[in-house]
Amino acid sequence: MPLQRAQIVMGLAAVAVLGAAVLSGGPQARVALTPDTVVADLGSGQAYPDALRRAMQAQRAAPGDLALATDAARQMIAEGRARGDSRLVGAALSILHPFVDDNVPAAQFLAATARQYQHDFPGALVLLDAVLTADPRDVNALLNRATIRTVQGDYPTALQDCARIGALRADVGFLCQATSLTLTTDAPAIADRLTAILAQPGAMDPALTPWATSLLGEIALLQGDPASAETHLHAVLADDPGAQREQLMLADLLLEQGRAAEVMTLLQQSPETDGVLIRRVLATRMQGNDADDIVTVLATRAQRSLDIGLTAHAREEAMFYLLLADDPARALERAQVNWMHQHEYDDARLLILAADAAGKPDAALPVLEWMQAAGIDIPALVIPASVAALQIGVKP
């Protein structure tokens, strides 16, 4: 059946975040930057924040100083993630490179975070393994490794790291486990337990409440309970209005309900990443207006990634070609590239919809086979008739 844009708005948020500021990340060329370099013009006209510029200047003045290097790299990664700029993240890797070669755990950890963002998951895992060889009790390294395994859909291995975390921090270990099980039949029970824990004062570190609340919102979405999901996502955003993952999940929920004006308000101050811009276009079109200038920006970014072989934004590129550019064949190609790296709900749904739109339902078979093998059960997932007809045990 033909695709309707209003029916296929997807929760294509950032890579799953297991409590910390975890990024995802394919190999990139190193980029030499000065504090005055503008890496990418995202339409906002904003230069780097003053704190980042100072950190870059300090690092350039003393390139052998580990503390200055890690501070600059950490800020560059955070800014690159916020802007959707993988080149800035690649520049952070250049700063860290000498220390990574010297097997400095702090540098290896940050470099792993950068490689996650670039979708170089094997490279990130090698670095995290090295960090954990030096300190098997490093909770952050275990958490990041579990994140990658969860993103890859390798839940048994992710849960092993969650168990190790649980022996060190019971509350973090449980949230790690809960995140790895959100797509499975265990999700409703996980939500019940999270609700009970949050109702007990002192049962969980208050700093973890946003993570737990976000999980409740995500599970509610996957279980087909948008009202509950909206309540939980609003609660997270009340504490942190800039929480990007929750912003995008809520934006998708609102779009599915035709609440375009609320989407525009929600994303008004958001960084102009691909995901934010795509949703702004969808909301603008839903209001009967065009957004050709934004579509042009997105098309330029997508073509640039294709020209130089980047994969870090393949998910958003597939979404662009499917929802905005009316190019299902290219959408399917980018969704397949994305599926090679990420096996989350959004990635699965995107590949299924792109395969259907391109008239190639068989291209969705890898998703259906993965769902069957991993015991995935998502009530909110609608499988088009052409894909459901493949009949390999997945419920239409």
Give the SSE map:
Elements: H1 50-61, H2 66-83, H3 86-101, H4 105-117, H5 121-134, H6 139-151, H7 155-168, H8 170-180, H9 187-198, H10 209-222, H11 226-239, H12 244-256, H13 260-266, H14 274-286, H15 292-308, H16 314-323, H17 328-341, H18 345-357, H19 365-374, H20 385-388
Helix pairs in contact: 1-2, 2-3, 2-4, 3-4, 4-5, 5-6, 6-7, 7-8, 9-10, 10-11, 11-12, 12-13, 12-14, 13-14, 14-15, 14-16, 16-17, 16-18, 17-18
Keywords:
396 residues; mainly alpha; Serine Threonine Protein Phosphatase 5, Tetratricopeptide repeat; 20 helices; 0% strand; globular; disordered N terminus
Number of strand segments: 0
Quote the CATH topology of the domain at 17-142. Serine Threonine Protein Phosphatase 5, Tetratricopeptide repeat
| Low-confidence residue ranges | 1-46
What number is the mean pLDDT?
A: 87
The general outline is: globular
Number of helices: 20
What is the CATH level 1 assignment of the domain at 17-142?
Mainly Alpha
* Fraction of residues in helix: 55-70%
Q: Quick one: biggest sheet?
A: none
Structural class: mainly alpha
